[in-house]
Design a protein that fits this description.
Layout: E1 9-15, H1 23-30, E2 38-44, H2 56-66, E3 74-78, H3 85-101, E4 107-111, E5 115-117, H4 122-129, E6 133-135, E7 156-167, E8 170-177, E9 185-187, E10 192-195, E11 199-203, H5 204-207, H6 220-230, E12 236-238, E13 243-245, H7 251-265, H8 270-273, H9 279-294
Parallel strand pairs: 1-2, 1-4, 2-3, 6-12
Antiparallel strand pairs: 4-11, 5-13, 6-11, 7-8, 7-10, 9-12
Helix pairs in contact: 7-9
Length: 295
């Protein structure tokens, strides 16, 4: 890489009303990165008015950017909500990918709105490394299902091995323990089955080959690592970067979404015209909604 040229970066995130609790801090963070040349693209997939060009939430996000002293361009866009959360994330990632490929940027930094690195200059360091893909470990922030009781209290990274733990008829992810991750930037080998895309830097050439996708037993982050391996694209882990993951339990927010969808069912043939739910989705939703309201 020619060090006399500063690569232009697009910093992007898919977000939703689920993340309102940390958005002000997040927007302050991404508008004050220690990097000289970057723009911002936010995709919001909150379940709101499906037909409106903008919503009160989109307007609020734009006003938060207006309050910051940011020299680049910041764009906030609305995305289509869909019932399956993995498909929803993949759809928003691809909206970001398409926007990126139509622009002048050389790198895309995806950073989820509940991810807070402790070093504002990490992007400058990652760009100097000139790798096709770089990520960093952060805690899962969720309860780990494991057949081994002693593993439940070990802090895990949002990263897992390809080979699962087999316990009877069940398979469990073999999560990578945070304490096992060495400092420095190292290549992720083929034993790693996937890593969280909460913080990942991708070169333009990578995104020209790969789209984000989900499948029945594969989230977008799992599919990404699989596709990188299939294309022979190396990915790297920065074990020195410390990250605070402000993940919260979303049960109350999910209940609100379920209630909104139940109210929509009602609008005659609106659902038949809407891409948000299939018949199978609606059946699954009604089952989940019934469980939620009983809690």
């Amino acid at each position: 890489m020619d060090e006399t040229i500063t690569p232009r970066v697009l910093v992007a995130t898919p977000t939703s009303g689920y993340k309102e609790y940390c958005e002000e801090e997040f927007i302050h963070q991404i508008t004050s990165l220690d990097y000289p040349s970057y723009d911002i693209f936010i995709v919001d997939n909150t379940l709101e008015d499906l037909d409106a060009e903008t919503t009160p939430r989109i307007d609020r996000l734009r006003s938060l950017f207006d309050e910051q002293d940011f020299k680049g361009t910041a764009v906030v866009a609305k995305d289509v909500w869909c019932f399956d959360p993995t498909r929803r994330v993949a759809t928003s990632y691809n909206k970001i990918r398409d926007f990126f490929l139509r622009g002048p940027w050389t790198h895309l930094l995806i950073i989820e709105s509940d991810i807070f690195p402790d070093d504002k200059s990490f992007l400058k360091r990652w760009i100097r490394e000139d790798k096709p893909v770089i990520t960093a470990p952060y805690t899962l922030g969720m309860i780990i299902q494991s057949p081994k009781e002693e593993e439940k209290n070990i802090p895990k990274a949002a990263m897992w091995y390809k080979r699962p733990i087999i316990f009877g008829q069940l398979e469990f992810y073999r999560w990578v323990a945070l304490d096992d991750i060495l400092p420095g930037i190292r290549e992720l080998d083929f034993t790693i089955g996937g890593f969280g895309t909460g913080l990942v830097l991708l070169h333009r050439e990578v995104l020209q080959q790969i789209i984000f996708r989900n499948e029945q037993k594969g989230t977008p982050d799992k599919c990404l690592k699989s596709d990188l391996d299939d294309y022979g694209i190396k990915s790297y882990l920065d074990g020195s970067l410390k990250i605070r993951h402000e993940q919260q339990v979303w049960d109350k927010l999910l209940q609100k979404d379920y209630a909104t969808i139940k109210e929509l069912k009602y609008c005659g043939d609106h659902l038949k015209r809407s891409p948000i739910m299939t018949t199978k989705d609606m059946h699954e939703f009604m089952q989940q909604y019934s469980r939620m309201v009983k809690k």
